[in-house]
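PROTEIN DATA CARD
Card holder: Dihydroorotate dehydrogenase (quinone)
Chain length: 346
Origin: Pseudomonas quercus
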Amino acid sequence: MYDLARQLLFKLSAETSHDLSLDLIGAGGRLGLNRRLVKAPAPLPVKVLGLEFENPVGLAAGLDKNGAAIDGFAQLGFGFVEIGTVTPRPQPGNPRPRLFRLPEATAIINRMGFNNLGVDHLVAQVKAARYTGVLGINIGKNFDTPVERAHEDYLLCLNKVHEHASYVTVNVSSPNTPGLRSLQFGDSLKTLLDALASRREALALSSGRRVPLAIKIAPDMTDEETLQVAAALRATGMDAVIATNTTLSREGVEGLQHGEEAGGLSGAPVRAKSTHTVRLLAGALKGEVPIIAAGGITEGAHAAEKIQAGASLVQVYSGFIYRGPALIRESVDAIAALPGWVRSAK
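Structure generated from the sequence above:
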């Protein structure tokens, strides 16, 4: 059924197809249809970050920026759902067209630019959802906020989503907001993480609830830069790292239609870079900071590969666009078949 739906949707422009799909998934969730139409994966519960996940395969941020279809995605079998990236104020993002399919490479290029309706709208959507599983909320800065004041945007978003999130992801790795990736390095990263850690502890004291913080990083750093990020995560008490966001590389899409479009490349071509980053982080973090792996998972074996590289959880986005809910089941099954996986997930 999904193959037929995809054929029809792919006849539309990429962003029109995205918006229509989101509407359909959201409507199916509200009516309870998705759980009837989709075969759920076998149970594979795991505890990570002090949270109980129904299974280790989640929806990556970016597909549902405003929390419009939380219940719908949950009913498709995801073990957790991450929404956003959300910014303090609504913003339209970059001019269209800004989303491109590269089906020959099972890939997508986007330069969306954090288009979203703002954090207040997202919080209202979360309040209206019935989903009671693990919900991540991914936060960012507005495009016109100077990089040196970026921490103000992140702190404002953290204040507003803290009560409603199972965990909060800090996105410092989108290539589509000018200057954002500079926050991954050196004093800029430490200043941001220190500010977030301090605010998170204050919120924990006032609310009686400590919400884990995850940092989402890019796959385009050198090994040395990745190891410096790992050291900063440990030093500032971050709870998790998501590896990785999209890449600026065009390796694997050379000569393809849309292959030279500006923006972040996701899907199959980023798989090796993302897995390398996961493996590097795992060696440096030694289990002290859990890794959530994303990037290039287009079949179940790729999800298992991320776990074997050192991740505790995985997320899908582009692979889900091309494969649909079958990828969730396939990934859960592949991870379940790994020897000793439950013992290794912390």
